[in-house]
């Protein structure tokens, strides 16, 4: 059986009721400055930031990128400009009462 999704309104009501229950049970809500919860001893926790190793040299791959771009968009072999060929259009032929009879192809 699939559970029905809860709406935003139901989620808000549930959170509000949980907060009210917490306060009624002599709970206390502390006000914390923005960003303070991410601080360790008043400083940002930098132990997880990966700048401890020296910077590594990167291998230039410009020729590989150029080869891929060349495959994607090969240069056109003809120097003549392309002409737009008009394609025939399908047109409906109706009878006297407005009912469709058949389709015909017309050149534009």
Automatic annotation (TrEMBL):
Residue ranges annotated for the Transcriptional regulator SutA RNAP-binding domain, each copy included: 6-39
Q: Where is this region: Disordered?
A: 69-91
Which InterPro entries does this UniProt record tie to the protein? Answer: SutA_RBD
A UniProt-annotated Pfam family: SutA-RBD
The protein here is known as Transcriptional regulator SutA RNAP-binding domain-containing protein
From which source organism is this entry? Answer: Marinomonas posidonica (strain CECT 7376 / NCIMB 14433 / IVIA-Po-181)
């Amino acid at each position: 059986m699939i559970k029905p999704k809860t709406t935003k309104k139901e989620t808000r009501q549930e959170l509000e009721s949980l907060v009210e229950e917490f306060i009624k049970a002599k709970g206390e809500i502390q006000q914390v400055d923005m960003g303070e919860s991410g601080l360790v001893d008043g400083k940002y926790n930098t132990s997880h930031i990966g700048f401890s190793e020296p910077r590594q040299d990167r291998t230039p791959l410009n020729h590989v990128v150029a080869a891929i771009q060349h495959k994607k968009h090969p240069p056109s072999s003809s120097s003549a400009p392309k002409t737009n060929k008009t394609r025939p259009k399908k047109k409906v032929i109706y009878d006297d009462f407005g009912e469709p009879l058949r389709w015909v192809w017309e050149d534009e």
